[in-house]
Amino acid sequence: MSGGLDSATVLALARRAGFVCHALSFDYGQRQRVELEAAARVAAAMGVTEHRVVRIDLSADGGFGRSALTDTLAVPKDRADGGEIPVTYVPARNTIFLSIALGYAEVIGAFDLFIGVNAIDYSGYPDCRPPFIEAFERLANLATAAAATGRGRFTVHAPLLSMTKAQIIRQGLTLGVPYERTHSCYDPDPTGRSCGHCDACRLRLAGFAAAGATDPVAYK
């Protein structure tokens, strides 16, 4: 749960389906650390059983970097739509996050992993596409003692995968998702206000407009 609108909507969908929800957020050296505060707000508002923040360092200081979210590279603004993978891509981020979630799930006896990736209105990240989700689910059922010994089969749920941002927002509004507590911007100002021009802001604003709703968060 990043603190953004997608993961908050996925949490609401999992709760509606009757799951007991353990939320994981990641402090990975991201520049937009305000999203962790948003994740805590969403977790508190939506009554998760447990909210854990896992600390890993994918920043340049930790020897990784190479992303505008974890390094000193400029966050692109008002980027033209195109097929290239943007500099905000964090190398292997969703693979790392799902791997940690898989280990945690095995420890607590859970077999359902939920992730808020989307392959329709998104920034072009390769780890947000159906083949990645399908491949990771196969890996989960090969790499764990729980699956190998027949205690259960892991399922990776990505309920937003084929939805537009407007569809996601409409769904969330019907479920009472507290979007005012979320944060999506890659480059907020020191007070936490969204920039309105990065990929995440533009997708979010366009989604609210297409859904006929007003985005409740503050913008510069």
Give a quick summary of the entry:
The protein has 220 residues and is mainly alpha-helical. It has one domain (5-210): Rossmann fold (3-Layer(aba) Sandwich).
Poorly predicted runs of 5 or more residues: none
> What gross morphology would you assign?
globular
Number of domains: 1
- The tally of beta strands, per DSSP, is 4
Q: In what range is the share of β-strand residues? A: 5-15%
Query: Average pLDDT, to the nearest integer?
Result: 96
Q: Percent of residues in helical segments?
A: 25-40%
- The CATH class turns out to be Alpha Beta
Sheet bearing the most strands, described? 2 strands, parallel
**Estimated structural class:** mainly alpha
Return the CATH topology: Rossmann fold
The number of helical segments is: 7
* Superfamily (CATH H level) name: HUPs
**Terminus-to-terminus distance:** 25 Å
SSE layout:
Layout: H1 5-16, E1 22-27, H2 34-46, E2 50-55, H3 93-108, E3 112-114, H4 130-143, H5 145-148, E4 155-157, H6 165-174, H7 199-210
Parallel strand pairs: 1-2, 3-4
Helix pairs in contact: 1-6, 6-7
